[in-house]
Amino acid sequence: MNPLVVALSGLNATDNPGPGVGVARSLREDKGLDPKMLGLVYDALEPGAHMEWLVDRAYMMPYPLAGKSAFLERISQLVAQEGLNFAIPNLDLELPLYIRCAPELEALGVKTFLPDMAQFKLRGKEHLGQLAEELGLHMPQTKVVNNLEELKEACEEVGFPLLVKGAFYSAHLVHNPLAAVAAYHEVVTQWGYPVLVQARIEGEEINLVGVGDGKGGSLGQVSAKKLVVSSQNKIFAGVTIRHEALAKAAERFLARYQWRGAFELECILKDEEIHMIEINPRFPAWVYFATAVGVNLPAQLVKAGLGLEIEPVKDYEAGKLFLRYTYEMITDMTHFKNLTLHGHT
């Protein structure tokens, strides 16, 4: 068997962190995989690209909007130069490209473990109401709007404060009509139509991260409650929990849709009712929390993608605390210069 060479993205470990550093830490800690790791970055200042204890080499990537040709050309270079044979995309905007290029990646010898396009589209926020009902969960009142008149009507019906969201990305909490209009224009400019207007639910934020085996089962999952979040709603403190209803909902999701790969359920618990806010088709930035309590989901995903025999890992201790903190890394300019001038470290 050829040495395992894994490429992973989402290394922007800033105040709005991506999942990549947590995924890399998790793979480093698995005693059986021993991968060489390549960081795929879109900015030479992504901190993970400079963490030599995690990433063996970093490469600049063309933006997903550049299309299949530029993407596959870069991947082909990594196959030829580094022996790349596994990829873990960790950013929402990349996933459709990786999914569409699955046959070409397979032909190049690069394995992935991702949902198909039909599964990926399930996470569109306009579909979440039906999905929540199928999973036995609640859904905040949500209206789909395509113009300012519909926005006005939706805001009057839902009531402030409320959230103005893109169908797949972006969410703005607004408290008045003027702020709603501004958020609407920002969402349309960035992500297009439709725009969603959603009631804000006050309660405890509970999330579940897991990996589906593609056959209706789970390779592992961990639930956590957010205690402190950033201004961008990123978890900065949390605690592992066991919540039977949330775990059962995840099991129904996997069984109903035969989900393949990483996923996260974002929910709010109010008066013992679970309101589903989002489903993310990738690892969250807090994925290392699961690894630290004994459920190494990135390692499970890679082993599944390689076709190895693995057992689900679901046992973990509730009450473990997660704290995110800032830390300064000092290095010279070599990596930055090489990434900028040559496209790799």
TrEMBL record:
Keywords attached to this entry: ATP-binding, Ligase, Nucleotide-binding
Stretches that traverse the bilayer: none
UniProt key word Nucleotide-binding: yes
SUPFAM superfamilies: Glutathione synthetase ATP-binding domain-like
Keyword Transferase: no
Protein's recorded name: Carboxylate--amine ligase
Record Gene3D superfamilies: 3.40.50.20, ATP-grasp fold, A domain, ATP-grasp fold, B domain
Database matches in PROSITE patterns: ATP_GRASP
Any GO CC annotation of this UniProt entry: cytosol
Residues of the ATP-grasp domain: 129-306
Leader sequence segment: none
GO molecular function, one term: ATP binding
